[in-house]
Design goal:
By secondary structure, the chain is of the alpha/beta class. It is globular. It has a 4-stranded parallel sheet, with helices on both faces. It has a two-stranded antiparallel ribbon with strand order 3-4. A two-stranded antiparallel ribbon has the order 6-7. Helices cover 29% and strands 22% of the residues. α4 (83-100) packs across α5 (131-138). The protein has one domain. The protein is built from 5 helices and 8 strands.
Length: 154
């Protein structure tokens, strides 16, 4: 039986990235196949109501946990606060994970939604989690990024 895994849709080659560029990750596809995993594609930003393409977003300060706590904001390059859409997308992603019985998520590093170890504050890369990663982590979903697949052990 295949294990369902929530996967950032962009890593599977779906047109969901902010800049509408396709970034299919062969390493992710191979990892899923090798480990008998069923990818459940998910784009929190689209689930939150943001279009593709869309202006890129970064944190005002803090990271996804700070946004969930109401202590930080996410602004796009037009200066618009999009924290509400990111929170909605995170909540919708959590619902998808629950409905699909996913206890593991494989998410896109550095994304304001899906960043596992690092995200952007303005133009600076900092240690932190995206909004969806932070919410999934609070609900005991184990998180990997495409950059740390070797850390996974059944």
């Amino acid at each position: 039986m295949l294990r369902p895994v929530l996967v950032s849709a962009c890593l599977l080659g779906l047109n969901t990235r902010y800049n509408a560029k396709i970034k299919k990750c062969a390493k992710v596809i191979n990892f899923l196949e090798k480990n008998n995993m069923l990818p459940i594609p998910c784009c929190p930003e689209q689930l939150g109501g943001l279009a593709t393409p869309r202006p890129s977003c970064s944190f005002s300060h803090g990271d996804g946990e700070a946004v969930l706590n109401g202590d930080a904001k996410l602004f796009n390059t037009n200066g618009e606060n999009k924290a509400e859409q990111f929170i909605l997308g995170a909540k919708q992603s959590l619902e998808v994970a629950k409905l699909s019985q996913c206890t593991l998520a494989l998410l896109k590093e550095r994304s304001p939604s899906c960043g596992v170890h690092s995200v952007y504050q303005g133009t600076q890369l900092i240690a932190g989690k995206g909004v969806t990663t932070a919410l999934l982590s609070q609900h005991e979903v184990h998180i990997l990024s495409e950059e740390n697949l070797d850390d996974w052990n059944n």
